[in-house]
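Hi support team,

I've been running sequence recovery on a batch of backbones for a student project. Most finish fine, but this one hangs at about 90% for roughly twenty minutes before it completes. I'm not sure whether the input is malformed or the queue is just slow. I've pasted the C-alpha coordinates below so you can try to reproduce it. Let me know if you need the job ID as well.

Thanks,
M.K.
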Protein backbone atom coordinates (compact mmCIF):
# COMPACT_ATOMS: atom_id res chain seq x y z
CA UNK A 1 0.00 0.00 0.00
CA UNK A 2 1.03 3.61 -0.54
CA UNK A 3 2.53 4.77 2.77
CA UNK A 4 0.20 7.29 4.43
CA UNK A 5 1.33 6.79 8.03
CA UNK A 6 1.89 10.52 8.61
CA UNK A 7 -1.64 11.43 7.47
CA UNK A 8 -3.19 8.60 9.49
CA UNK A 9 -1.37 9.70 12.66
CA UNK A 10 -2.66 13.24 12.09
CA UNK A 11 -6.24 11.95 12.01
CA UNK A 12 -5.75 9.71 15.05
CA UNK A 13 -4.46 12.74 16.99
CA UNK A 14 -7.54 14.77 16.00
CA UNK A 15 -9.82 11.87 16.98
CA UNK A 16 -8.13 11.51 20.37
CA UNK A 17 -8.88 15.20 21.00
CA UNK A 18 -12.58 14.60 20.33
CA UNK A 19 -12.58 16.59 17.07
CA UNK A 20 -13.72 15.75 13.53
CA UNK A 21 -11.76 15.48 10.26
CA UNK A 22 -12.69 16.27 6.65
CA UNK A 23 -10.87 14.58 3.77
CA UNK A 24 -11.01 15.25 0.06
CA UNK A 25 -9.75 12.81 -2.55
CA UNK A 26 -10.50 12.90 -6.26
CA UNK A 27 -11.68 9.80 -8.10
CA UNK A 28 -9.00 7.04 -8.14
CA UNK A 29 -6.90 8.91 -5.54
CA UNK A 30 -6.89 5.99 -3.09
CA UNK A 31 -9.15 7.79 -0.62
CA UNK A 32 -11.16 4.69 0.31
CA UNK A 33 -7.99 2.58 0.59
CA UNK A 34 -6.57 5.25 2.90
CA UNK A 35 -9.68 5.12 5.10
CA UNK A 36 -9.45 1.33 5.28
CA UNK A 37 -5.86 1.74 6.50
CA UNK A 38 -7.13 4.19 9.10
CA UNK A 39 -9.74 1.63 10.20
CA UNK A 40 -6.99 -0.97 10.68
CA UNK A 41 -5.20 1.46 13.00
CA UNK A 42 -8.42 2.04 14.95
CA UNK A 43 -8.74 -1.73 15.42
CA UNK A 44 -5.15 -1.89 16.65
CA UNK A 45 -5.85 0.94 19.10
CA UNK A 46 -9.07 -0.84 20.20
CA UNK A 47 -11.24 2.10 19.18
CA UNK A 48 -14.85 1.32 18.21
CA UNK A 49 -15.74 2.59 14.76
CA UNK A 50 -18.50 2.62 12.15
CA UNK A 51 -17.34 2.53 8.50
CA UNK A 52 -20.11 3.56 6.10
CA UNK A 53 -19.61 3.41 2.34
CA UNK A 54 -22.10 6.16 1.54
CA UNK A 55 -22.10 5.22 -2.15
CA UNK A 56 -24.40 2.42 -1.03
CA UNK A 57 -26.70 4.93 0.70
CA UNK A 58 -28.71 6.08 -2.29
CA UNK A 59 -31.97 6.43 -0.33
CA UNK A 60 -33.28 6.32 3.25
CA UNK A 61 -33.78 2.53 3.27
CA UNK A 62 -30.24 1.72 2.11
CA UNK A 63 -28.88 4.31 4.58
CA UNK A 64 -30.69 2.58 7.45
CA UNK A 65 -29.40 -0.82 6.31
CA UNK A 66 -25.74 0.23 6.03
CA UNK A 67 -25.72 2.07 9.37
CA UNK A 68 -27.48 -0.80 11.15
CA UNK A 69 -25.07 -3.40 9.72
CA UNK A 70 -22.16 -1.44 11.15
CA UNK A 71 -23.91 -1.13 14.49
CA UNK A 72 -24.38 -4.90 14.56
CA UNK A 73 -20.72 -5.44 13.68
CA UNK A 74 -19.65 -3.35 16.68
CA UNK A 75 -22.19 -4.98 18.99
CA UNK A 76 -21.48 -8.54 17.82
CA UNK A 77 -18.18 -8.59 19.72
CA UNK A 78 -20.43 -9.61 22.61
CA UNK A 79 -22.88 -11.93 20.85
CA UNK A 80 -24.76 -12.97 23.98
CA UNK A 81 -26.06 -9.48 24.57
CA UNK A 82 -26.36 -8.31 20.99
CA UNK A 83 -30.16 -8.59 20.72
CA UNK A 84 -30.72 -6.60 23.91
CA UNK A 85 -28.08 -4.08 22.83
CA UNK A 86 -29.59 -3.74 19.37
CA UNK A 87 -33.00 -2.88 20.81
CA UNK A 88 -31.31 -0.20 22.91
CA UNK A 89 -29.40 1.03 19.86
CA UNK A 90 -32.57 1.28 17.73
CA UNK A 91 -35.38 1.60 20.28
CA UNK A 92 -38.07 2.87 17.91
CA UNK A 93 -37.34 0.61 14.95
CA UNK A 94 -37.41 -2.72 16.85
CA UNK A 95 -35.34 -4.80 14.42
CA UNK A 96 -35.66 -8.55 13.92
CA UNK A 97 -32.23 -10.14 14.48
CA UNK A 98 -30.94 -13.58 13.56
CA UNK A 99 -27.55 -15.27 13.90
CA UNK A 100 -25.95 -18.09 11.92
CA UNK A 101 -24.63 -21.07 13.85
CA UNK A 102 -22.66 -22.24 10.83
CA UNK A 103 -21.04 -18.84 10.32
CA UNK A 104 -20.09 -18.04 13.88
CA UNK A 105 -21.13 -14.58 15.03
CA UNK A 106 -22.53 -13.42 11.68
CA UNK A 107 -25.72 -11.46 12.36
CA UNK A 108 -28.45 -10.14 10.12
CA UNK A 109 -31.13 -7.56 10.74
CA UNK A 110 -34.53 -7.03 9.14
CA UNK A 111 -37.30 -4.46 9.62
CA UNK A 112 -41.03 -4.28 9.14
CA UNK A 113 -41.05 -0.70 7.94
CA UNK A 114 -42.77 1.25 5.21
CA UNK A 115 -40.87 3.87 3.18
CA UNK A 116 -42.52 6.60 5.28
CA UNK A 117 -41.33 4.91 8.49
CA UNK A 118 -37.73 4.82 7.28
CA UNK A 119 -37.50 8.59 6.81
CA UNK A 120 -39.08 9.04 10.23
CA UNK A 121 -36.52 6.77 11.92
CA UNK A 122 -33.39 8.15 10.21
CA UNK A 123 -32.53 10.14 13.34
CA UNK A 124 -32.82 6.95 15.41
CA UNK A 125 -30.15 5.33 13.25
CA UNK A 126 -27.82 8.33 13.49
CA UNK A 127 -28.10 8.14 17.27
CA UNK A 128 -26.87 4.51 17.34
CA UNK A 129 -23.12 5.31 17.69
CA UNK A 130 -23.92 7.69 20.56
CA UNK A 131 -25.88 5.00 22.40
CA UNK A 132 -23.01 2.54 21.95
CA UNK A 133 -20.54 5.17 23.18
CA UNK A 134 -22.65 5.89 26.23
CA UNK A 135 -23.30 2.25 27.13
CA UNK A 136 -19.62 1.28 26.82
CA UNK A 137 -18.26 4.58 28.10
CA UNK A 138 -15.88 4.60 25.13
CA UNK A 139 -15.33 6.86 22.16
CA UNK A 140 -16.85 5.81 18.82
CA UNK A 141 -15.47 6.98 15.47
CA UNK A 142 -17.85 7.23 12.51
CA UNK A 143 -16.08 7.11 9.13
CA UNK A 144 -18.38 8.32 6.33
CA UNK A 145 -16.74 7.65 2.97
CA UNK A 146 -18.29 9.76 0.18
CA UNK A 147 -20.54 11.43 2.73
CA UNK A 148 -22.01 13.73 0.06
CA UNK A 149 -24.49 10.95 -0.75
CA UNK A 150 -26.13 11.41 2.65
CA UNK A 151 -26.75 15.07 1.89
CA UNK A 152 -29.41 14.17 -0.67
CA UNK A 153 -31.44 11.92 1.66
CA UNK A 154 -34.61 13.75 2.59
CA UNK A 155 -35.02 14.91 6.21
CA UNK A 156 -31.60 13.58 7.25
CA UNK A 157 -29.79 16.94 7.77
CA UNK A 158 -26.44 15.32 8.58
CA UNK A 159 -24.56 18.59 9.17
CA UNK A 160 -27.19 19.84 11.60
CA UNK A 161 -27.17 16.53 13.46
CA UNK A 162 -23.37 16.50 13.84
CA UNK A 163 -23.31 20.13 15.02
CA UNK A 164 -26.02 19.44 17.59
CA UNK A 165 -24.20 16.43 19.09
CA UNK A 166 -20.61 17.66 19.35
CA UNK A 167 -18.82 16.45 22.47
CA UNK A 168 -21.11 13.49 23.14
CA UNK A 169 -18.57 10.68 22.65
CA UNK A 170 -18.71 10.34 18.86
CA UNK A 171 -16.29 11.85 16.35
CA UNK A 172 -16.51 11.85 12.55
CA UNK A 173 -14.08 11.36 9.70
CA UNK A 174 -15.90 12.68 6.65
CA UNK A 175 -14.54 12.06 3.17
CA UNK A 176 -15.72 13.28 -0.22
CA UNK A 177 -14.78 13.15 -3.88
CA UNK A 178 -16.94 16.22 -4.52
CA UNK A 179 -14.49 19.12 -4.76
CA UNK A 180 -17.23 21.79 -4.75
CA UNK A 181 -18.70 20.39 -1.54
CA UNK A 182 -15.24 20.18 0.01
CA UNK A 183 -14.38 23.80 -0.85
CA UNK A 184 -17.78 24.98 0.40
CA UNK A 185 -16.86 23.96 3.97
CA UNK A 186 -15.40 27.32 5.06
CA UNK A 187 -13.90 28.32 8.41
CA UNK A 188 -17.31 29.09 9.87
CA UNK A 189 -18.66 25.68 8.84
CA UNK A 190 -15.54 23.95 10.19
CA UNK A 191 -16.05 25.57 13.58
CA UNK A 192 -19.73 24.65 13.58
CA UNK A 193 -18.91 21.00 12.84
CA UNK A 194 -15.82 20.88 15.13
CA UNK A 195 -13.60 20.00 12.16
CA UNK A 196 -10.02 20.31 13.37
CA UNK A 197 -8.31 18.80 10.33
CA UNK A 198 -8.98 19.41 6.63
CA UNK A 199 -6.90 17.13 4.43
CA UNK A 200 -6.48 16.44 0.72
CA UNK A 201 -5.39 12.96 -0.32
CA UNK A 202 -3.25 13.36 -3.41
CA UNK A 203 -3.64 10.84 -6.18
CA UNK A 204 -0.57 8.54 -6.32
CA UNK A 205 1.77 9.16 -9.23
CA UNK A 206 2.41 6.42 -11.76
CA UNK A 207 5.90 6.00 -10.27
CA UNK A 208 4.47 5.55 -6.75
CA UNK A 209 1.94 3.00 -7.97
CA UNK A 210 4.58 0.93 -9.78
CA UNK A 211 6.86 1.07 -6.73
CA UNK A 212 3.95 -0.06 -4.55
CA UNK A 213 3.30 -3.01 -6.88
CA UNK A 214 6.97 -3.97 -6.81
CA UNK A 215 6.95 -3.94 -3.00
CA UNK A 216 3.93 -6.23 -2.89
CA UNK A 217 5.65 -8.65 -5.28
CA UNK A 218 9.11 -8.46 -3.72
CA UNK A 219 9.17 -12.24 -3.16
CA UNK A 220 7.98 -13.07 -6.68
CA UNK A 221 9.32 -12.32 -10.14
CA UNK A 222 7.85 -9.43 -12.12
CA UNK A 223 7.71 -9.60 -15.90
CA UNK A 224 9.09 -6.52 -17.64
CA UNK A 225 6.26 -4.10 -18.34
CA UNK A 226 3.78 -5.94 -16.09
CA UNK A 227 3.58 -3.22 -13.42
CA UNK A 228 3.02 -0.58 -16.11
CA UNK A 229 0.35 -2.78 -17.72
CA UNK A 230 -1.52 -3.13 -14.41
CA UNK A 231 -1.47 0.63 -13.78
CA UNK A 232 -2.58 1.45 -17.33
CA UNK A 233 -5.34 -1.14 -17.53
CA UNK A 234 -6.89 0.01 -14.24
CA UNK A 235 -6.27 3.74 -14.95
CA UNK A 236 -4.22 4.24 -11.80
CA UNK A 237 -7.08 3.35 -9.42
CA UNK A 238 -5.31 2.19 -6.24
CA UNK A 239 -8.38 0.35 -4.94
CA UNK A 240 -8.87 -1.57 -8.21
CA UNK A 241 -5.15 -2.38 -8.43
CA UNK A 242 -5.22 -3.77 -4.86
CA UNK A 243 -8.32 -5.84 -5.69
CA UNK A 244 -6.59 -7.32 -8.72
CA UNK A 245 -3.41 -8.08 -6.77
CA UNK A 246 -5.45 -9.93 -4.14
CA UNK A 247 -6.21 -12.62 -6.77
CA UNK A 248 -2.56 -13.54 -7.14
CA UNK A 249 -1.30 -15.51 -4.18
CA UNK A 250 2.30 -16.55 -4.82
CA UNK A 251 2.24 -16.29 -8.63
CA UNK A 252 4.67 -14.18 -10.64
CA UNK A 253 3.36 -10.86 -11.92
CA UNK A 254 2.93 -11.23 -15.66
CA UNK A 255 0.86 -9.40 -18.25
CA UNK A 256 -0.97 -12.67 -19.02
CA UNK A 257 -1.91 -13.16 -15.33
CA UNK A 258 -3.07 -9.55 -15.03
CA UNK A 259 -5.49 -9.98 -17.93
CA UNK A 260 -6.65 -13.32 -16.52
CA UNK A 261 -7.32 -11.86 -13.09
CA UNK A 262 -9.20 -8.86 -14.47
CA UNK A 263 -11.36 -11.30 -16.44
CA UNK A 264 -12.03 -13.30 -13.26
CA UNK A 265 -13.07 -10.14 -11.42
CA UNK A 266 -15.41 -9.19 -14.29
CA UNK A 267 -16.96 -12.69 -14.21
CA UNK A 268 -17.44 -12.36 -10.45
CA UNK A 269 -19.15 -8.99 -10.85
CA UNK A 270 -21.09 -9.91 -14.02
CA UNK A 271 -24.50 -10.18 -12.36
CA UNK A 272 -24.11 -6.88 -10.48
CA UNK A 273 -22.87 -5.04 -13.56
CA UNK A 274 -25.81 -6.37 -15.60
CA UNK A 275 -28.20 -5.07 -12.93
CA UNK A 276 -26.44 -1.70 -13.03
CA UNK A 277 -26.76 -1.55 -16.79
CA UNK A 278 -30.40 -2.69 -16.86
CA UNK A 279 -31.32 0.10 -14.42
CA UNK A 280 -30.34 2.77 -16.99
CA UNK A 281 -32.47 4.40 -19.67
CA UNK A 282 -31.74 3.67 -23.33
CA UNK A 283 -29.98 7.02 -23.77
CA UNK A 284 -27.96 6.61 -20.55
CA UNK A 285 -26.82 3.18 -21.76
CA UNK A 286 -25.60 4.64 -25.07
CA UNK A 287 -23.80 7.48 -23.31
CA UNK A 288 -21.99 5.37 -20.69
CA UNK A 289 -20.87 2.86 -23.36
CA UNK A 290 -19.54 5.76 -25.46
CA UNK A 291 -17.63 7.18 -22.46
CA UNK A 292 -16.18 3.74 -21.64
CA UNK A 293 -14.91 3.36 -25.19
CA UNK A 294 -13.89 6.93 -26.05
CA UNK A 295 -13.42 8.75 -22.65
CA UNK A 296 -15.68 11.55 -21.39
CA UNK A 297 -13.71 14.57 -22.57
CA UNK A 298 -15.65 15.32 -25.78
CA UNK A 299 -19.24 14.34 -24.93
CA UNK A 300 -20.73 17.61 -26.16
CA UNK A 301 -18.98 17.68 -29.53
CA UNK A 302 -21.28 17.10 -32.50
CA UNK A 303 -19.15 14.28 -33.93
CA UNK A 304 -19.17 12.39 -30.59
CA UNK A 305 -22.95 12.80 -30.31
CA UNK A 306 -23.60 11.74 -33.93
CA UNK A 307 -21.20 8.76 -33.93
CA UNK A 308 -22.74 7.33 -30.72
CA UNK A 309 -26.42 7.96 -31.53
CA UNK A 310 -26.88 10.43 -28.65
CA UNK A 311 -29.49 12.71 -30.29
CA UNK A 312 -28.54 16.18 -28.95
CA UNK A 313 -26.57 18.21 -26.41
CA UNK A 314 -29.61 18.70 -24.09
CA UNK A 315 -30.30 14.94 -24.06
CA UNK A 316 -26.62 14.26 -23.21
CA UNK A 317 -26.79 16.82 -20.38
CA UNK A 318 -29.90 15.13 -18.96
CA UNK A 319 -28.28 11.69 -19.10
CA UNK A 320 -25.09 12.97 -17.45
CA UNK A 321 -27.09 14.42 -14.54
CA UNK A 322 -28.88 11.11 -14.07
CA UNK A 323 -25.68 9.04 -14.24
CA UNK A 324 -23.87 11.32 -11.75
CA UNK A 325 -26.83 11.14 -9.36
CA UNK A 326 -26.76 7.33 -9.57
CA UNK A 327 -22.96 7.38 -8.93
CA UNK A 328 -22.12 5.81 -12.31
CA UNK A 329 -20.24 8.91 -13.46
CA UNK A 330 -17.97 11.38 -11.71
CA UNK A 331 -17.01 14.80 -13.03
CA UNK A 332 -13.71 16.54 -12.30
CA UNK A 333 -11.28 18.92 -14.01
CA UNK A 334 -10.27 16.20 -16.48
CA UNK A 335 -13.86 15.58 -17.60
CA UNK A 336 -16.30 12.73 -17.02
CA UNK A 337 -15.13 9.37 -15.71
CA UNK A 338 -16.91 6.12 -14.98
CA UNK A 339 -16.71 5.67 -11.20
CA UNK A 340 -16.00 1.93 -11.17
CA UNK A 341 -13.04 1.04 -13.42
CA UNK A 342 -14.11 -2.61 -13.56
CA UNK A 343 -17.59 -1.59 -14.73
CA UNK A 344 -15.94 0.55 -17.42
CA UNK A 345 -13.84 -2.44 -18.53
CA UNK A 346 -16.95 -4.66 -18.56
CA UNK A 347 -18.72 -2.16 -20.83
CA UNK A 348 -15.75 -2.05 -23.20
CA UNK A 349 -15.61 -5.83 -23.46
CA UNK A 350 -19.30 -6.58 -23.90
CA UNK A 351 -20.52 -3.68 -26.02
Amino acid sequence: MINKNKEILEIVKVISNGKNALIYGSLYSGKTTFLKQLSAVLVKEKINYFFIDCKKCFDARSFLTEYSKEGLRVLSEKVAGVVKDAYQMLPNIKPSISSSGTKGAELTMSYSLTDDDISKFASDVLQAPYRISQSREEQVVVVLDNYENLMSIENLNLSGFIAKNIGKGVVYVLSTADQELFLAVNKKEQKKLAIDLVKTIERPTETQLKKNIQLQFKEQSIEEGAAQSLVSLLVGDLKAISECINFYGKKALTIKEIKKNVSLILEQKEQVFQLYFDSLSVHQKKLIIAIAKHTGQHVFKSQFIYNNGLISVPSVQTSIKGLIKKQFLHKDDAGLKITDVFFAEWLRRYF
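--
Follow-up from support: It reproduced on our side and the slowdown came from queue contention, not your input. The chain has two domains: 5-200, 279-351. No action needed from you.
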